[in-house]
Write a structure and sequence with these properties.
This protein is mainly beta and about 260 residues long. Helices cover about 10% and strands about 45% of the residues. Helix 1 packs across helix 2. The longest helix has 16 residues. It is globular and about 50 Å long.
């Protein structure tokens, strides 16, 4: 299975399996500063129990770090929703937008060692048509007071969809980046080379999450992640299920515009 198809399967199964529990409690965490120390207004929304796995989040505005603490009691995905609190009235595309560091403690309480791990970002509000596969300089926006007022966005280092950056401070051990073409500026991050044994932790540090802000848009995206144990046919069948539920989940979870 190639990286693109795997990423789509991981995302879908996470949405289907991870956020549909009637007993889960929705929680919000506010993101108030980006890594350029600029004021921003974003929210992370998550369910603290997802298909038997537990999730907790905290944001440190002084260090611009979102910390995830997840206990995987089984190898099903978990996911969280990021959304801009209001439609952007001032274009911040030339600054940082929603750009933060992400640390995590991910505990393996499943029945299998982890040989890899996958994370993907689904941008549900791309700036222009073409979705999150659209690439550099593929669209233009117009901003009053700018010269020129209309200019391309979505440069090679900062595509117009939500994306990861791997920077000098990023730590992925014991895994290494196995994403085709490298994870930097991509919407999917796949790592391999573990293992993370049963009852052990994986603690990645300073993975960058970035989504530009554009005047007139209220951005949002979903982060999904899943451990990759030694693959078995049944595992891939599970991850490939549930494609028809994606659209319905996004509509149910989309925040009401203020």
């Amino acid at each position: 299975m190639n990286a693109k198809r795997l990423g789509q399967s991981l995302l879908v199964s996470c949405i289907v399996a991870g956020l549909g529990l009637p007993t889960a409690t929705a929680k919000d965490v506010k993101i108030t500063k980006n890594s350029n120390n600029e004021d921003i207004a974003w929210t992370v929304r998550f369910d603290e129990v997802q298909n038997g796995n537990t999730v907790d989040l905290a944001f440190d505005a002084t260090k611009f770090i979102l910390t995830k603490t997840v206990t995987f009691n089984n190898n099903t995905p978990v996911s969280v929703l990021f959304f801009e609190d209001a439609v952007a009235t001032v274009d911040s595309e030339n600054s940082g937008g929603m750009r933060i560091f992400m640390n995590a403690t991910l505990t393996n309480k499943s029945a299998l060692d982890w040989r890899g791990f996958a994370e993907q970002l689904l941008d549900t509000t791309p700036v222009c048509d073409g979705g999150q596969d659209q690439r550099a300089n593929a669209c233009k926006v117009t901003t009053a007071g700018r010269n020129p007022a209309t200019r391309p966005i979505g440069e090679a280092l900062h595509p117009q969809f939500s994306h990861f950056h791997i920077v000098a401070a990023t730590r992925l051990g014991p895994f290494t980046d196995a994403t085709a073409g490298g994870a930097n500026t991509k919407s999917m991050l796949t790592v391999t080379g573990g293992p993370v044994k049963i009852n052990a932790d994986w603690k990645p540090e300073k993975i960058v999450l970035h989504d530009i802000e554009v005047q007139g848009f209220r951005r949002q995206f979903v982060l999904t992640e899943v451990p990759l144990p030694v693959p078995e046919p049944g595992t891939w069948l599970m991850l490939a299920g549930g494609l028809v539920a994606v659209g319905g989940w996004v509509r149910r979870r989309r925040p009401t515009a203020s």
